[in-house]
Amino acid sequence: MSGELSTPLTLWFSDVGRDARPLVGGKVASLGELLRAGCRVPNGYAVTSAAYRRFIEATGLDRLIQDTIGGLNADDVAAVDAASQKIQQAFLNCSVPVELADPIRAEYERLADTLGDPAPAVAVRSSAVAEDTEAASFAGQHDTYLWVQGSDEVLDAVLRCWASAFTPRAIAYRAHQRIGLEDAAVAVGVQQMVDPRAAGVMFTLSPRSGDPSLVVVEGSWGPGVAVVGGEVTPDEYWVNKVTLEITRKHISCKSHQYKAEGRQGDLRKVEVPEDQQNEPCLTGDEVVELAKVGRQLERHYGHALDIEWAVADSLPFPENIFILQARPETVWSQRRREPVAAGFTDPLSFIVRRLANT
């Protein structure tokens, strides 16, 4: 416990990188690494996994968690649901001790000073210690709160992010991935919101075929919630990774987007103006710049990536392009591709057969 007491409770994104994953979780470690790679990333800080552990120890939740899900059968849906409800409600019934609450509030106020805004809108995102590795992805399993304003509201969102480590999906996923309770700690990222004209995701290979020569950019109007949630068919751009030429473009009808309301950042679904629904959400220059950033990041990390991005409405190109998250691509990267010359006993036989078929 003495080592835990000396561990930082908060850390700024600019102070961390991939090596800080045990302290700030996969998502925030990636944000710090994005900064190191030279990307434009909205400013922010992490509430570390040490703060989470101090919280569950101070409130006795550590014992409740162990007693409730230690030995739980992850395939018993009803039992997992009941355990999840019990633990999450216990989290929300607790108050954050002042020695943890004060630094979380203080860093939000420091961010406000940096931005010149007394109550800046922030995204409060769970960042699990075991998250977003090449072997495991917690995408969509832990909570994110957007457009949160005010230090009390940020503290409440942090508490809810901690509780979201014990959704039914997260409990079952950790069990099936053999991730122990000691690795279930959750850090939380508090990040300046970008007011996006458009947002979406980008893959540094084709998500359909696994073709590594492509960067595929998908986007829609407003925040990327509708894209990530599969609620709209996004515009799609295929970009040659070598030449940065847009080789395919499909513009969809994007009938709605989300708008933030209130200090809790509640998102409201609104209709996109009719004359904008069938217009591309990105310019050609923006697509190419995104692909260029994706290519740069793939080289930096050394593997294929799934990247979330946003284009701000208030800044000139290319300063308007921000990277919000980058995680390892976990579908095609884990598939074992059949060797090109499978079924041939020697290279010459393979070459002869290929020539005969051309």
Can you describe this structure?
There is one protein chain. The protein folds into 2 domains: 10-192, 2-Layer Sandwich (Dna Ligase, domain 1), CATH 3.30.1490; 196-328, ATP-grasp fold, B domain (D-amino Acid Aminotransferase, Chain A, domain 1, 2-Layer Sandwich), CATH 3.30.470. The protein is 36% helix and 23% strand. It contains 11 helices and 13 strands. The strands form 3 sheets. A 6-stranded antiparallel β-sheet has the order 9-8-7-6-12-13. It is globular and about 55 Å long.
How many angstroms separate the termini? 68 Å
Q: Helical percent range? A: 25-40%
DSSP helix count?
A: 11
Oligomer: single chain
How many strands, which pairing sense, and closed or not: the largest β-sheet?
Answer: 6 strands, antiparallel
Secondary structure tally: strands:
13
From the 3D coordinates, which CATH architecture of the largest domain would you assign?
A: 2-Layer Sandwich
CATH topology of the largest domain: Dna Ligase, domain 1
Question: Which strand-content bin applies to the residues?
Answer: 15-25%
What is the count of structural domains? 2
Which strand order do you get reading across the main beta sheet?
A: 9-8-7-6-12-13
Give the CA-based shape: globular
Structural class: alpha+beta
Which segments are poorly predicted (pLDDT under 50) over 5 or more consecutive residues? 134-140, 336-341
